[in-house]
Specification:
This protein is α/β, with parallel strands linked by helices. The chain has helices at 3-19, 26-41, 58-66, 79-87, 127-137, 160-163, 173-183, 211-220; strands at residues 49-52, 72-76, 95-99, 112-118, 138-148, 185-193, 222-229. The protein has one domain (3-229): 3-Layer(aba) Sandwich (Rossmann fold). The protein has eight helices and seven strands. Strands 3-2-1-4-5-7-6 form a seven-stranded mixed sheet, with helices on both faces. β4 (112-118), α5 (127-137) and β5 (138-148) form a beta-alpha-beta unit.
Length: 230
C-alpha cells in the first residue's frame, strides 16, 4: 500500500475515534506509562516541545504547563482530533496544534528541544521516516522519546493487530533502536515502564484474554526508546 493511501486510511480511522469521543479517554489510559517518562525528560520552563500523534491534546496541555516560557506543538494526522484538541486548549497561549503526518512534520528544522510520541509510532505508515523527521526538527542536543505499548518483546499485546482497523507495526525494541541510530541519533537506549495502575478482578474488554493477561502485560511494561541529536 502506498504511503498516501495508508495515511488516508489512518486519518479516516482516527477521525472516527475522535467523533466517538475516544480521544478524551487516552489520558487515563496512557498517563501511568507517560508520567515516568516526563520525569526523565526534565523539561525546562523555556523549552520548545513537540508531541507527535497528540490525539485530543492531553499530553500537549501537560507539556505546555511544564514549559510556560517555551512553545509546545501538538501534531496529529487526524483533523478531527486536532479540532478537539484546539477546543480543549483555548486557555494556553504557548500551545499550538497542527495537522500532519509523522513522515512530513510541518515544522522548520532545528527548532524543538525535545520531541515525544506516546502510543502513536506503531501506527505510522513508515516509522523510520517518522523517526527521521523527529531528528530533523530537533535542535542539536535535542532529545526524542517514543513510548509504545505494542511491541514484539511483550507477548501479551500481539493480539491487538487483528483487532485494529488499520495496519500496525509489531517491532522489536532493537528494531526501534536501530531506526533511531539510522536517523542519526546518539545515546540511543531503551527501557520498560511498568503500568502500576489498578487492574479489575474480572476483565471484560476485548484487548486481553482475561485479567491475568492484562496484569502480565502491565508488568512487562511500555517500551521507551530515546536518543539525542548529535
Amino acid at each position: 500500500m502506498a504511503r498516501e493511501d495508508a495515511g488516508r486510511e489512518l486519518r479516516e480511522e482516527f477521525n472516527k475515534w475522535a467523533e466517538a469521543g475516544r480521544g478524551e479517554g487516552m489520558e487515563q489510559d496512557h498517563l501511568p506509562i507517560t508520567l515516568p517518562v516526563l520525569e526523565k525528560m526534565k523539561v525546562g520552563s523555556e523549552e520548545n516541545l513537540l508531541d507527535v500523534g497528540c490525539g485530543s491534546g492531553w499530553l500537549s496541555r501537560r507539556l505546555a504547563k511544564m514549559a510556560p516560557g517555551g512553545r509546545v506543538v501538538g501534531m496529529d494526522i487526524s483533523d478531527e482530533m486536532i479540532r478537539a484538541a484546539r477546543r480543549a486548549s483555548t486557555e494556553q497561549e504557548n500551545l499550538l496544534f497542527v495537522t500532519g503526518e509523522a513522515s512530513e512534520i510541518p515544522w522548520e528544522p532545528n527548532f524543538f528541544h525535545q520531541a515525544i510520541s506516546v502510543e502513536s509510532a506503531y501506527y505510522w505508515p513508515e516509522p523510520a521516516a517518522g523517526i527521521h523527521e523527529m531528528f530533523r526538527v530537533l535542535r542539536p542536543g535535542g532529545a526524542a522519546w517514543v513510548v509504545i505499548n505494542y511491541y514484539r518483546d511483550n507477548p501479551h499485546c500481539h493480539q491487538w493487530g487483528a483487532l485494529l482497523a488499520v495496519k500496525t507495526h509489531l517491532l522489536l525494541a532493537e528494531e526501534w533502536m536501530q531506526m533511531f541510530r539510522e536517523a542519526g541519533f546518539g545515546e540511543v537506549r531503551e527501557e520498560r515502564v511498568a503500568d502500576a495502575s489498578a487492574t479489575p478482578e474480572k476483565y471484560t474488554g476485548r484487548w486481553f484474554r482475561d485479567a491475568e493477561q492484562l496484569k502480565a502485560f502491565k508488568r512487562e511494561g511500555a517500551l521507551v526508546v530515546a536518543g539525542r541529536k548529535k
